[in-house]
Amino acid sequence: MSENTFPILVFGATGQQGGSVASALINAGRPVRALVRDPSSLKSSELRRAGVELVPGDLRDTPSIRAAMKGIYGVFSVQPSSGQGAMYGVSDEDEVRYGTEIANLAVESGVQHLVYSSTSAVGDEPTGMGHFDSKARIEAHIRALPITATVIRPAAFMEMLLMPGFGLDQGRFNFFVRPNQTMQLVAVQDIGRIVAAIFGDAARFGGATIELASDTITGRDLGSLFTEAAGRPITYARFPDDVLAASPFLRRLTDLADAGRLTGNADLEALREINPGLLSFRSWLAGGGRKAFLEALGKSGDWSYDHD
User: Fold this and answer.
1) pLDDT of residue 88
2) Quick check: is 278 in a domain?
3) What pLDDT is attached to residue 1?
């Protein structure tokens, strides 16, 4: 029996990354299984209609994870983190525990290929920010295990730029980078397509650590592209000093951007060989991001992801 007939277990399938991966795998003809807390929820129902096999459980329930791993070929592992805000109620230690346990259970279950989603901020030295350094700890644990594994390190999501608090509703956009500083961004859709390709060629990608991005832009480019998409001026500026002084979290992110830890080093040409349809920020804004962008233009709100 071909390995392509065995399911790939996708964690976070009702979320952004996992949902993109599940969709791309289904489109590639791979059977997909998902661990979901509520099989009757709207998002779970959408997965079921798309052909995804649902297994009830969650990251705190080891027996449910073990059951979901029976008879599978691969695992896509992604966990919620403290960096996603208080709504998830996840600590950095929770994230590490979830990520390492999934990897351990994958080894126990004889999984042939584990793909773990980390972040482009991870490097040789700690960042000093828990929700980034937690991923470095999970990466290190996975590399010590007897399993074929691929680590992906996505850049900042294009989707993240449309959260409330960046000023789009006020005709401006404030972000971490200086106007002339470059930064890589990734469309979540591209993550799914690349992960599907990775699962399709373990011999090529097993053991690799791959930075993911879709496009490289500057702060000034963001202002221009948002202006073009909105049909009215959107001015770009880095976060003002008073905002950074009031938000230690934003201050540390901005410092990491200055140090090059958040700006990305993905090889876009190599990624286009894997996914020829890699999305530019302009094409994403005109396509999959269009609805969310128009909503962001009229949605006020404050930055709600601050941490001590």
Assistant:
1) 53
2) no
3) 41
Q: Confirm whether 221 is domain-assigned.
A: no
How confident is the model at residue 164, as a pLDDT?
86
Would you state the pLDDT for residue 308? Answer: 39
Q: Does the structure show a pLDDT above 50 at 105?
A: yes
How many other C-beta atoms are found inside a 10 Å radius of the C-beta of residue 167?
A: 18
Would you state the structure tokens that stand for residue 121, as one six-digit string? Answer: 């901020």
- Whether 218 maps to a domain, the answer reads no
Do 201 and 220 contact (CB within 8 A), yes or no? no
22 alpha carbon, distance to own chain's centre: 13
Residue 35 lies in a domain: yes
- The 10 Å Cβ neighbour count of residue 91 is 14
- Tokens representing residue 182 in the block: 């470059």
Cβ atoms within 10 Å, residue 51: 11
* Residue 9's CATH number: 3.40.50.720
What pLDDT, on the 0 to 100 scale, is given for residue 108?
A: 98
Residue 86: pLDDT band with limits 50, 70, 90 = very low
Is residue 108 exposed (0-12), middle (13-18) or buried (19+ Cβ within 10 Å)?
exposed
What's the rounded Cα separation, in Å, for the pair 297 and 283?
Answer: 18
Tell me the average pLDDT across 59-68.
96
**Residue 73, CB half-sphere, CA atoms under 13 Å: how many?**
18
Residue 32 · residue 51 · CB < 8 Å:
yes
